[in-house]
Design brief:
460 residues; Urease, subunit C, domain 1; Metal_Hydrolase; hydrolase activity, acting on carbon-nitrogen (but not peptide) bonds; Amidohydrolase; alpha/beta; four-stranded mixed beta sheet; hydrolase; single chain
Length: 460
């Protein structure tokens, strides 16, 4: 693999927790960072990039998404503000159930491409939509899309097993049996999961959420994940606790803990409705939280208490979530909006808002922790050569350059980054994907979308 050297960078942020390196080089070889320092030796044949003006950061780690929902966004008739949650689900799930295998492939390309453009290098997708006509090889197509774009990809093999007649929100055509779900989780793990350092492919067992699955689905998920040594993931604390309490006699956190669906190998998405006592339980068990700030604007009854999570020691990462509750796939934007939302709610909090640097940390090392990875999330020798860089020689950044670590949260980065590197390979540079025709990818995705949802054509 060709070496890559970024030469005399204005600033290298190796971690949100460490001092910024000024005017130094960063050398990437064989998929890993090999050295950071001044005037590094240039290996023969290395690609050299002039780092003048560049701020270099660890690649962002997205810990919760639903790629397929990129095909159902910017739909005014599905605006959350017009419906209750149940009414909205009854409208949108029939649309989800029409998607084909090709839809899942192309929507994955759409989501990952946008993530890469904005500095994300590792993406976890919670794929729980399996219409019967689309088959069971959707995860396979997602890995195919990730390989095309060069994305480091973690697939959360989700699923729903509880019929609507028994209280779920899932149409029958999207249901699976527990046995079928577990069998395909095992197949996906055996086919794709690579636990080695610098792995580009991993799989997690991720039943969609407790309100849409039988208890046995969660019990068998725990057994399989622990047997295979993979992560567990699900939705928790987004308004379902009263339902779980009514059915099972306890709120969701206690329900999951009673099953064993908790611990250092487990992380939940959202958790905006959890009490302080419940957050203390997550901290005690080591269970992580993927905080998705932008859906709070639409579907959160309150701003997630990130200050309490941080103060109590809950492991925190950031996620975009799907287009059903966030119409973009821009994790960089989530850093800024996440910080600003906490500032808005500061007067109602027991704990102070974490400093801006912490939000960059959630999106990098925090996300790596949730995914069980110690080889991503920071720039240090031996760790993955996953990074992004911005050229700060623009009017946008005048007055901001004295503090590169706080910049993403405090100021925000509104435009695509100038460079994204994954596993030592340039996957985005100067507004283009090297060796890929974005226009052709766009046309293929649009054609597939309009075949299934013809009302998405541009209206004159």
């Amino acid at each position: 693999m060709t070496a890559l050297l970024l030469r005399k960078c204005d600033a290298i942020v190796t971690s949100a927790l460490e001092p910024v390196r000024i005017g130094e080089d960063i050398l990437c070889e064989n998929g890993a960072v090999s050295a950071i320092g001044p005037d590094l030796h240039i290996p023969e044949g290395a690609q050299v990039i002039d780092g003048a003006g560049l701020f270099v950061y660890p690649g962002l780690v997205n810990t919760h998404h639903h790629f397929f929902q990129c095909f159902v966004r910017n739909r005014a008739e599905l605006d959350w503000t017009r419906y209750s949650v149940i009414e909205w689900l009854d409208l949108i799930y029939p649309i989800f159930s029409r998607l084909t295998e090709d839809c899942f492939y192309h929507s994955s390309i759409v989501a990952m491409a946008e993530l890469i453009k904005h500095g994300c290098t590792t993406a976890f997708d919670h794929q729980y939509c399996f219409p019967r006509h689309a088959g069971s090889r959707i995860i396979d197509r997602q890995f195919e899309a990730a390989e095309l774009l060069g994305m480091r990809f973690h697939a959360g093999r989700g699923g729903n097993t509880l019929p609507k007649s028994e209280g779920s929100t899932i149409p029958d055509e999207m249901l699976e049996s527990t046995d079928a779900f577990i069998a395909d989780c095992e197949r996906a793990i055996d086919t794709f999961h690579d636990p080695a350092p610098l792995s580009m492919r991993q799989v997690a067992v991720a039943p969609c959420q407790p309100v849409n699955c039988y208890r046995e689905t969660f019990e068998q998920s725990v057994r399989l994940a622990r047997d295979k040594g993979v992560m567990l993931h699900t939705h928790v604390g987004e308004g379902e606790s009263p339902v779980i309490e009514k059915v099972h006699g306890m709120r969701t956190v206690d329900y999951c803990e009673s099953i064993g669906f908790a611990g250092a190998d487990t992380f939940y998405a959202h958790c905006w409705e959890l009490s302080r006592d419940e957050l203390e339980k997550l901290a005690a068990s080591g269970t992580g939280v993927s905080h998705c700030p932008e859906p709070v604007y639409l579907v959160g009854a309150e701003v997630t208490d990130v200050p309490a999570m941080d103060a109590l020691g809950v492991r925190l990462g950031l996620g975009c979530d799907g287009a059903a509750s966030n119409d973009n796939s821009n994790l960089m934007h989530c850093i800024h909006s996440g910080y600003m939302l906490q500032c808005l709610a500061a007067a109602t909090r027991q704990d102070p808002v974490p400093v801006p640097a912490r939000f960059l940390g959630y999106a990098t090392e925090g996300g790596a922790s949730l995914l069980g990875r110690s080889d991503i999330g920071a720039l240090r020798p031996g760790m993955a050569a996953d990074l992004f860089a911005i050229d700060t020689r623009r009017l946008d950044f005048v007055g901001t350059r004295h503090d590169p670590i706080s910049l993403p949260a405090k100021v925000g980065m509104g435009a695509p980054v100038d460079l994204t590197v994954i596993n030592g390979r340039i996957v985005w540079k100067d507004g283009a994907f090297p060796d890929l025709d974005e226009g052709a990818l766009f046309a293929a995705a649009e054609t597939t979308l309009q075949t299934v949802l013809p009302d998405t054509k541009l209206r004159r």
